[in-house]
Amino acid sequence: MTERKARADAARNREAVLAAADELFASGGGPRGVSMEQVAAAAGVGKGTLFRRFGDRNGLIRAVFSARSEAVRAAVESGPPPLGPGAAGRERVPAILDALLAFKLDNRHLSLALEEAGAGSPYEVEHYGWWHGVMRDALRDTAVPDAGFAAHALLAAVRADLVEHLASAEEMPGREMRERLAAYAAKVVG
Amino acid sequence: MTERKARADAARNREAVLAAADELFASGGGPRGVSMEQVAAAAGVGKGTLFRRFGDRNGLIRAVFSARSEAVRAAVESGPPPLGPGAAGRERVPAILDALLAFKLDNRHLSLALEEAGAGSPYEVEHYGWWHGVMRDALRDTAVPDAGFAAHALLAAVRADLVEHLASAEEMPGREMRERLAAYAAKVVG
DNA sequence: AACGATACGGACTGCTGGTCCGCTTTGTAA
DNA sequence: TTACAAAGCGGACCAGCAGTCCGTATCGTT
Q1: Which site among A45, A72, A162, B9 is 20 to 30 Å from B102 CA-CA?
Q2: Looking at the partner chain, which of B153, B161, B166 has a beta carbon nearest the beta carbon of A157?
Q3: Same structural domain for residues B48 and B98?
Q4: Distance of CA A54 to the CA centre of its chain
Q5: Which of B122, B145, B165 sits opposite A161 (nearest CB)?
Q6: How far apart are the CA of B175 and the nearest CA of chain A, in angstroms?
Q7: Pair (B93, B171) in one structural domain
């Protein structure tokens, strides 16, 4: 895409930054308290490098997030049913939601950081558009009227901060959360 | 409550700040670009005053929000059905959601500011707990299993940033949004 | 070897939320 | 009216952050 040629040191630094950021974000009190300067230091590069490569804070978060979420995306895009294409909407919708929730449970800090966005709403991030598209298509195959809106509504139910709230404030175990979500999703598509 | 005695100038300033903040938040590009210093200047008070009265940025936003949302809260808490108590869950749930959505449409900037929170998630704010409680109670009166989770899920469908996205990026008129939400809510409680 | 192109890094800037404390206003009591 | 403590005020001040800039170092190509 935008990658014409990559100089060796540039590529190396890029990886170092991604790794350092991933680790810093995951550790301690989430990405909120992690400054760009810290990331730069941990990666052993200068602040300038970091900003040139990733544009701004959100760019960095998005990059780390992309790397982490590739697997789920692939599973949904071309994995076996019911998560992948091929399954009936009634089964695929809950499967997709569950996969997304499971991912967010495993990557709470990162997801939170992405949705906090900092600059824009989570809805401006490209990855949301993708999930919405997939969800809407799956919903079209069900009795739900207005798949577009329903897709938004269902995805909203797994917003990172809600997940975080349920897990922390309400002390709900991940397993239980997934069951409850599944029941809710079933009700919606049923 | 915490108000034992209020000195005349203190009360005057409090009002001035609330008014100035409300106006500043509403105008221009939302509350994101409004600094505390600007609010102080517009209200004709010093920064110190502002922070002493409201604690921090979020405190100010919460205060402005509370003032604005009193009406809806009252209508839900003790107004006539179907919004107020007394109506069957199947009717009250959509009514509450619609009222909330209508309010957010009318106070987009403010709602956005509140949910952006800045410090904590929207779920830590007391007003969310209240809405969730009302919603859960209304849902208990329907066939929906797990009213607690469903309440979270339904409220998530009217998150300020989603509303903003639908209104701006998808250019969905308020009226249409409310219809779609009503249809979705009906499906959930039906 | 040599020479543009590319990338580096950290000092620097501008702005923000929040604190601090000497000074002013208010309300009360004499 | 005066006196005086408590309550409140304001803006200089601080620390920390995202993001910029540009002289210098590295790369890879001829």
Answers
A1: A162
A2: B153
A3: no
A4: 18
A5: B122
A6: 14
A7: yes
Looking at residue B164, its pLDDT comes to 93
Q: Mean pLDDT over all residues of chain A?
A: 92
Q: Are residues A51 and A72 in the same domain?
A: no
Class of residue B189 by CB neighbours under 10 A (exposed 0-12, middle 13-18, buried 19+): buried
Q: Which residues of B touch A162 (CB under 8 A)?
A: 123, 152, 156
pLDDT of res. B114: 87
- B157: closest CA of chain A, how far (Å): 5
- Give the pLDDT confidence score for residue A118 in this predicted structure: 56
- Interface contact A91, partner B, CB < 8 A: no
Q: Both A86 and A153 in a single domain?
A: yes
In order of A33, A141, B14, B186, B187, the CA distances from A145 in angstroms are: 43, 10, 48, 11, 9
Chain C bases near protein CB atoms (7 A cut-off)? 6-12, 15-21, 25-28
Q: Side chain identity at A179, as an amino acid letter?
A: E
Cis peptide before A85 (omega within 30 of 0): no
Q: State the nearest residue by CA to the C1' of D9.
A: B49
